[in-house]
Amino acid sequence: MTDTTVTRAQLAEAVYQEVGLSRNDSAQLVDVILEEVSQALIREEMVKLSSFGSFQVRSKGQRVGRNPKTGQEVPILPRKVLVFRASHVLKDKINRALGGTTSTPATGSV
Amino acid sequence: MTKSDLILRLAEKYPHLLQRDIERIVNTVFDEISNALARNNRVELRGFGAFSVKKRDARQGRNPRTGESVSVSEKFVPFFKTGKQLRDRLNGIEGTSDE
To answer: CA within 20 to 30 Å of B32's CA: A50, B41, B45, B75, which one?
Structure first.
C-alpha cells in the first residue's frame, strides 16, 4: 500500500490543477510555502496549521550517548529538534480511510 | 505562525495574486499531504522533511486513573521526520543544499 511517494512535484501539480497559475508558478508557490514554514520554525515560532497539525521546535539539553557499535560514550551536544503533532482532523481522516479506530465518532466533517 | 499568518505573508509576497487564491493554494498543499497520508502514501519534501503513516497494533491498555484494563484497537498515526537540511538550519548550520 505504501508503494507511492508523494513529492513536491505532485503538490505543485495539485496547485496547478486547482488555481489558474502556470506550472512554474505553482511549483514556486509550493517551495515558498514550505520555506515560510521553515523560516518561522528557524525563528522558533510555533507553526499551527488548522485541520492539519502543528510544528514546534524543542531544545534538547546535552546528554551522554553511546556509540551502539563500539559501546564508547560520546557526548550528545545540545540541539534543536522539530516536533510535528498531527491534528485530530488529520488523525481521524487517516484512520477512517485506513480502517483504524478514530478518537471521535465518525459524524464530524473532515 | 498560523495558517492565516502564512496566507498574509504570501499575499505580501505576491501582490498580483488574489488572497482568496493564495488561501486555496495553501489549503491545496496541506490537503494534498493529508490525502496522500490517508492513502497510506509517504510524502517526501526534500529539504523540509517526510510524512508517513505508522500502524499501531491493537493492544491491551489501562486507564491510568482507574487502573481498569481497556482494549485499544489498531490505529494509524501520522509521523513526521525532519529533513536533514531543515534540521541543520534549525541548529544554525547553513549551506548544505542537498539531503
So the answer is: B75
Contact status, residue A78 vs residue A88, Cβ threshold 8 Å: no
ipTM score for this prediction: 0.89
Per DSSP, chain A holds a count of helices (H) and strands (E) of 3, 6
The C-alpha cell at B48 is 523540509
**Does the beta-carbon distance from B42 to A46 stay under 8 Å?**
no
Using the Cβ of A14 and the Cβ atoms of chain B, whether some distance falls under 8 Å is answered with yes
* CA nearest neighbour of B80 among B43, B41, B32: B43
Report A:22-61 residues touching B (Cβ under 8 A).
Answer: 26, 29-30, 32-34, 36-38, 40-42, 45-53, 55, 57
Write the pLDDT tens digit of every residue in A50-77. 999 999 999 999 999 999 999 999 999 9
Q: Residue A87 class from Cβ within 10 Å (0-12 exposed, 13-18 middle, 19+ buried)?
A: middle
Distances from the Cα of A67 to the Cα of A62, A71, A100, B92, angstroms: 16, 5, 37, 25
